[in-house]
Design brief:
Layout: E1 5-13, E2 19-28, E3 33-37, H1 44-51, E4 59-64, E5 67-68, H2 73-78, E6 80-83, H3 95-105, H4 112-121, H5 137-149, E7 155-159, H6 167-182, E8 186-191, H7 194-200, E9 203-208, E10 211-217, H8 218-225, E11 228-234, E12 251-252, E13 258-263, H9 272-281, E14 286-293, H10 296-308
Parallel strand pairs: 3-8, 3-9, 6-7, 7-8
Antiparallel strand pairs: 1-2, 1-4, 4-5, 9-10, 11-13, 11-14, 12-13
Helix pairs in contact: 3-5
């Protein structure tokens, strides 16, 4: 099945010479959730704005379900829903009217049943006759999603959708995204919250300084690049790592009771057996042993750090 969104060598250079996008190429499959990670100024919003027709590319090509975003703009844009970073809503308008109006902008006929369906899915039906100014920040975010969904797009862009909301609401938003995926919507999510990508994404893309560093299955990425740590808890604290353990390059925790050993799970030998033998030979008594997988955040920081150097 062909990709629903295809980006080929997309470049954006502003008048002053700043390159916001440097030859980005990407294919996004139908029904997947792609999390696009990157620091401020990395090019995430520029990429989304270009695909959505808000910004004009300097060069390159983008097709949405086979429709070119330049030569077949209307057909391409009708397939896209966009939830921007900034909440931009008419404060004195009612929720239901705000969402209904967005559907009309795409030339769709009035469909009160569709409006109700979207509002119910986003837990907004009870607020349908409330003015926007009466809503909390989290509810306003939901209205933004409703506006983006009401014309039945096949691709939904969420640009920092949970920025500034509390943890509970963020998890609610994750559930909403999962429901939209189950309904067949393809979702591209930009976020600063690494745990967001880790929780809901199928694939992860890392962008920095206008370049797409990688796009990979989340689980594969963590398996390929993640490191594991063996944490050895001692029955009694020590002041320093014994000389006999120096070859293992251990780290001693500030409490003096935990030795941390980092290893590669894909190496021919992890060195754990030798470490355990040497710990016993050094006269140290174990209380507990546990392992810890490196997080997506650590992998992301490592990737961007390598690019910077």
């Amino acid at each position: 099945m062909p990709a629903i969104l295809t980006i080929r060598d997309l470049r954006k250079t502003y008048a002053g010479g700043f390159e916001a996008l440097k030859g980005v190429s990407l294919e996004i499959e139908r029904g997947e959730i792609l999390a696009l990670l990157g620091p401020n100024g990395a090019g995430k919003t520029t990429l989304i704005s270009t695909v959505c027709g808000i910004t004009t590319a300097t060069s390159g090509h983008v097709t949405v379900d086979g429709h070119d975003i330049v030569t077949d703009f209307r057909a391409a844009r009708a397939l896209i829903g966009l939830v921007p970073q900034e909440v931009a809503l008419e404060p004195f308008e009612k929720v239901r009217n705000t969402v209904r109006f967005s559907r009309g902008l795409f030339g769709k006929p009035r469909d009160d049943a569709r409006v109700e369906e979207v509002l119910r899915r986003l837990s907004l039906w009870d607020k349908r006759d409330a003015q926007i100014k009466e809503l909390s920040g989290g509810m306003k975010r939901r209205v933004m999603i409703a506006k983006a969904m009401v014309h039945e797009p096949r691709i939904l862009f969420l640009d920092e959708p949970t920025a500034g909301v509390d943890v509970e609401l963020r998890k609610d938003m994750w559930e909403i995204v999962a429901e939209m995926k189950a309904a067949g919507v393809t979702i591209i999510l930009t976020t600063h919250y690494i745990e967001e990508a880790e929780a809901i994404a199928d694939r992860v893309g890392v962008i920095d300084r206008g370049e797409l560093l990688l796009v990979e299955e989340k689980d594969t990425l963590m398996k390929r690049m993640g490191r594991k740590q063996l944490i050895v808890e001692l029955t009694a604290p020590i002041e320093a790592i014994p000389e006999a353990l120096a070859r293992h390059r251990l780290t001693l925790a500030p409490d003096g009771r935990h030795l941390v050993y980092t290893y590669d799970t894909h190496a021919e030998r992890t060195g754990i057996t030798a470490l355990m033998n040497d710990v016993a030979a050094a006269g140290l008594v174990l209380c507990d042993v546990q392992t810890r997988q490196s997080s997506l955040e650590e992998i992301f920081v490592d990737l961007v750090g390598r690019k910077a150097s």
